[in-house]
Design brief:
Protein name: ABM domain-containing protein
CATH architecture of the largest domain: 2-Layer Sandwich
CATH topology of the largest domain: Alpha-Beta Plaits
Oligomer: single chain
InterPro entries: ABM_predict (IPR038762), Dimeric_a/b-barrel (IPR011008)
Order of helices and strands: EHEEHHEHH
Transmembrane segments: 116-137, 143-162
Strand order of the largest sheet: 2-3-1-4
Helix content: 40-55%
Radius of gyration: 23 Å
Organism: Sphingomonas longa
Keywords: Membrane, Transmembrane, Transmembrane helix
CATH class of the largest domain: Alpha Beta
Shape: elongated
Largest sheet: 4 strands, antiparallel
Strand content: 15-25%
Number of helices: 5
Length: 186
């Protein structure tokens, strides 16, 4: 009886960009896909881009052996090293008719890093907002000043401050102790 055909395999490359290097990812992905095309067994690629500089590239191969040969080859190793200059990454692979991957997200950041980044956004904003409200509404009771301050603080943090602070710090927040991209909640 003939042996069954090899199971398809997938290689997932997840990357979070260093601040200011988001555009480097696009040309890098094109070169990764072109390099996979050269190697036998490449079937397709799916690009999944999340807001905030977190990206995933799924490469499909006809079998695990060809995927491993490509991902462990000099071309991909050089491309991955190049990407380390503008991002931090995580590579995963699986094979079979059903495959599963744990994709990194901001939820995986260490809680102390998230708290520190949030605090760095809150403190200066709080000082400015409370000072401006106290100056603009000096005759208003303190409790009403605090209510106005809290509305302004929450709005500024939600729409202006924290998106910027987290964008600048995401690269650092999502790294594990080895400098790789975290996928487990911290």
């Amino acid at each position: 009886m003939p042996s069954p055909p090899p199971a398809p395999a997938a290689f997932v490359i997840s990357r979070v960009m260093r601040p200011g290097h988001e555009e480097a990812y696009g040309s890098w992905v094109d070169r990764v896909i072109a390099a996979a095309h050269v190697d036998g067994g490449f079937m397709s690629a799916v690009r999944l881009d999340q807001a905030g500089g977190l990206h995933h590239l799924v490469l499909h191969f006809d079998e695990r052996r060809r995927l491993e040969r490509w991902s462990e080859g000099a071309t991909y190793i050089a491309l991955a090293s190049e990407a380390d200059a503008f991002s931090v990454g995580l590579d995963q692979n699986d094979s079979g008719s059903v495959m599963g991957f744990d994709l990194p997200s901001e939820v995986a950041a260490k809680k102390w890093k998230t708290a520190l980044v949030t605090w760095l956004g809150v403190v200066p904003t709080l000082l400015i907002v409370s000072s401006v409200v106290a100056w603009a509404l000096p005759d208003v009771p303190r409790v009403l000043q605090q209510i106005v301050s809290s509305v302004l603080l929450t709005s500024a943090l939600t729409w202006l401050i924290l998106p910027k602070v987290r964008g600048w710090s995401r690269f650092w927040m999502m790294q594990n102790e080895q400098g790789d991209l975290r996928k487990e909640p911290g």
